[in-house]
């Protein structure tokens, strides 16, 4: 499993942004699908490819980009590379909590960065700061990240998404607002995020506000469903033959969050 993504990896998969800009004429629209590290839920790449198969009914294959995305810095860098190709739909398969998408959930890169930052604060005999946690959480796209200089630079782009574009976070809890972080004493790490920019909006609402596009997210946990004989079903194990795989909220459906 890759710990992150760079454009060299994307190019090897036939998904290089600059290559797409050469092939496609100005103002062409398409779909971008990011998938994070599934960990205990399996390979999120399966879900991304299943969605791609569904979207092929509407879009030609060269207008659907599927990319492994486990690093928030690369998330912003990748989006900044688009020039003539507009995003009609952005889909992200990821673990989430109300305050962020955990793209690199349980991957080694994220865990090492977190541990190093925490240990450094212990060596300095002080509490870790809000800024240090935001920087250390390279595998988490936090609501707080939308306030950073790198993000605000991307926000100036008004041509990244088509006018009617939508964003959807496939997975759990991305629609929960007022998220409060906590630690198990005596540890102090996540709680540092409560010292600024509170109350936290949900990552779904923060994304809608940042990109000014309608965003969909769940307010509960989620589970795996398989498309069998035209119907989505919850099964104990993956069937040999199925028409698709998806993540669906345990309660209700994905909710809509409009830009403010």
UniProtKB/TrEMBL annotation:
The name this protein goes by in its record: Uncharacterized protein
The species this protein was found in: Chryseobacterium rhizoplanae
Lineage: Bacteria, Pseudomonadati, Bacteroidota, Flavobacteriia, Flavobacteriales
């Amino acid at each position: 499993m890759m710990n992150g993504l760079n454009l060299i990896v994307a190019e090897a998969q036939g998904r290089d942004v600059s290559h797409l800009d050469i092939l496609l004429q100005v103002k062409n629209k398409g779909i971008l699908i990011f998938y994070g590290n599934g960990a205990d839920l399996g390979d999120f790449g399966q879900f991304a490819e299943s969605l791609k198969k569904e979207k092929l009914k509407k879009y030609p294959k060269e207008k659907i980009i599927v990319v492994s995305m486990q690093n928030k810095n690369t998330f912003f860098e990748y989006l900044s590379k688009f020039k003539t190709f507009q995003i009609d739909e952005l889909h992200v398969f990821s673990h989430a909590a109300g305050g962020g998408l955990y793209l690199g959930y349980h991957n080694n890169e994220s865990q090492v960065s977190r541990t190093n930052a925490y240990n450094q604060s212990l060596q300095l005999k002080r509490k870790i700061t809000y800024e240090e946690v935001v920087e250390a959480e390279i595998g988490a796209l936090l609501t707080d990240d939308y306030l950073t200089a790198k993000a605000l630079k991307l926000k100036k782009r008004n041509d990244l998404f088509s006018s009617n574009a939508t964003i959807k976070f496939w997975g759990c809890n991305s629609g929960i607002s007022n998220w409060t972080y906590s630690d198990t004493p005596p540890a102090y790490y996540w709680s540092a995020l409560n010292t600024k920019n509170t109350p936290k909006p949900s990552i779904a609402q923060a994304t809608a506000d940042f990109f000014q596009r309608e965003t969909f997210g769940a307010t509960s946990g989620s589970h795996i469903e398989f498309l069998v004989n035209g119907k989505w079903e919850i099964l104990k194990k993956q069937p040999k033959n199925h028409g698709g795989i998806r993540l669906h909220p345990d309660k209700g459906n994905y909710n809509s969050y409009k830009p403010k």
